[in-house]
Design goal:
By secondary structure, this protein is mostly helical. It is 80% helix and 0% strand. The protein is built from 25 helices and no strands. It has helices spanning 2-27, 30-33, 40-72, 75-84, 89-104, 110-141, 144-150, 152-168, 171-199, 205-226, 238-243, 246-255, 263-269, 273-284, 290-302, 311-316, 321-336, 339-344, 346-352, 357-385, 387-410, 418-435, 437-448, 454-481, 488-494. The longest helix has 33 residues, at 40-72. The protein starts with a helix and ends with a helix.
């Protein structure tokens, strides 16, 4: 109640000066209200209407800028670095072989080239695992916004390693750079949805949190476009392609400091009501904040005297058993479904599906566009349809298309049109993933856990997702080579 009264007193200089003249005009005579102009009766209803429209535009602009600034250096980076590694596959493998031959005088065997390439790919999710474990303490100590800004240190270090790897003749620099980019992605993928979910109004929280999936898909598409042979996917430009992740980091460093911190963090974690109110005013404009302030004060009272929980404490608390179970199952399923591996090994997947090599790079762009389209659709319908329907429907459809894809691969030598059916199943699989699991999974920790347990919940979910992505990414090339022993050497060459 004290916070509510103090908020109203602070709002009085902002709203009171505009409200008092309207009260005085209401007490004046109708003739005085319209004196001096024939447009007086039309001006009175227009002024508050235009004022409200202006307030909504300002409010929407600040929130939109916050979403974009957090996303461009957050999940956009994850999607971008997930997809750009696909384009220079053959060039990096050739560089690895040449480097080894220059050092030892002998070329690497094909299976060792494949192993090193798998490590380059899989060190990215391994770094993501470290980043996910680091995200919780960072979010508590530095706050949501500062953590995203500090996170760009890993991006700068990785860009330096990528840029000079070819000149230094070291494929180990590529491996270390991928590990650092994974750490950056692990931190941002946990903190960005937390930051946006705590900054958005309640009625828009689901749609705003779903924007993380939109930026992931947008990063995937941009990585696929930039990786075209006509741009940075050529044999000489691949170091620039890997180092191009610096651009999103610079954009975030230039824009995010100008935007407010999470109001929930400011009030509940830092205990600063004035900073919380200032952040809310920037995000909501001069709208009535009494209800939202009361909700924040209620959560603050509930969390009073409680410290932030550790990840293992979530498993020990019986009252959180259902929430933790949902988090573990859905966080693991998101990566075990194999959707992200399609982007990493897209070239090999479409070659195996029978697509001509010269057309593969253009087909790959379509996969990212499918997920981007469905991410937008999911953002629009999530508040109307609900989280449960999107999750169950998405995974059911993915199971259906994955089964048909398996049959198409087995019969592709029997029917000339089977490769096109297999390609269609891949697109349908990605569409089904984008409409539900891609976006809904990321917002579950925000909605299922309170302020003290939320960072730990994101650590658990992030650790599971990155561990599964690491295992799938490391084993996927060998799984592809396993079924056809007589074609193994050909597949190793293509990979």
């Amino acid at each position: 109640m004290h916070l509510y009264l103090s908020a109203q007193m602070r709002f009085w200089p902002l709203v009171g000066m505009n409200a008092q003249p309207s009260v005085q005009r209401s007490r004046a005579s109708p003739r005085a209200a319209t004196a001096g102009t024939s447009w007086g009766r039309q001006r009175r209803p227009l002024r508050p209407l235009l004022s409200r429209m202006l307030e909504k535009c300002i409010q929407g602009r600040v929130l939109l800028l916050t979403i974009c600034a957090a996303g461009i250096g957050g999940t956009f980076q994850f999607g971008y670095n997930l997809s750009i590694i696909n384009a220079p596959t053959l060039h990096i493998q050739e560089f690895t072989n040449q480097t080894w031959q220059a050092r030892t005088g002998q070329p690497l065997p094909d299976h060792l080239v494949l192993l090193i390439w798998s490590l380059i790919v899989s060190l990215y999710p391994l770094g993501g695992l470290f980043g996910a474990l680091l995200a919780g303490p960072l979010a508590i100590m530095l706050g949501r916004k500062k953590s995203l800004l500090v996170n760009n240190i890993f991006v700068v270090a990785a860009v330096i390693l990528f840029g000079f790897s070819h000149r230094a003749g070291s494929f180990e620099m590529i491996m270390l750079g991928r590990l650092l980019m994974g750490v950056s992605a692990g931190v941002s993928m946990n903190i960005q949805p937390m930051y946006l979910g705590e900054s958005a109004p309640k009625e828009l929280r689901g749609a705003v949190a779903m924007s993380s999936a939109i930026f992931t898909a947008l990063g995937i598409v941009m990585g696929q476009v930039v990786g075209l042979r006509e741009l940075l996917g050529g044999p000489q430009a691949w170091p620039l392609l890997l180092a191009s992740c610096l651009v999103p980091g610079v954009l975030q460093l230039a824009s995010l400091p100008l935007l407010p911190e999470s109001p929930r963090y400011l009030l509940i974690d830092r205990g600063d009501p004035e900073a919380c109110l200032a952040a809310l005013q920037r995000l909501r404009g001069t709208a009535d904040l009494a209800l939202e302030l009361a909700e924040l004060e209620e959560e603050r009272t509930a969390c009073q005297g409680l410290r932030a929980r550790r990840p293992w404490e979530l498993f020990q608390d019986g009252t959180l058993r259902r929430q933790v179970t949902s988090l573990v199952v859905l966080g693991s399923a998101m990566e075990l479904c194999g959707n992200d591996s399609i982007y990493t090994y897209a070239f090999s997947v479409f070659r195996e599906a029978g697509i001509p090599q010269e057309k593969v790079q253009y087909v790959v762009i379509g996969t990212g566009c499918c997920e981007l389209l469905m991410a937008f659709v999911g953002c629009v319908v999530i508040e109307k349809v609900g989280r449960r329907v999107l999750l169950i429907g998405g995974y059911c459809l993915m199971t259906c298309w994955g089964s048909i894809f398996t049959v198409a691969l087995c019969l592709q030598s029997s029917f000339h049109w089977m490769p096109y059916l297999a390609m269609s199943c891949i697109f349908a699989f990605i569409l089904s993933f984008g409409i539900g699991p891609a976006g809904v999974t990321g917002i579950l920790p925000t909605e299922l856990f309170d302020q003290t347990a939320r960072p730990a919940a994101y650590m658990v979910c992030g650790a599971l997702m990155w561990t599964m992505l690491f295992l799938v990414g490391l084993g996927y090339p060998f799984i592809m080579c396993f079924p056809a022993g007589d074609q193994r050497q050909d597949l190793l060459g293509n990979l």
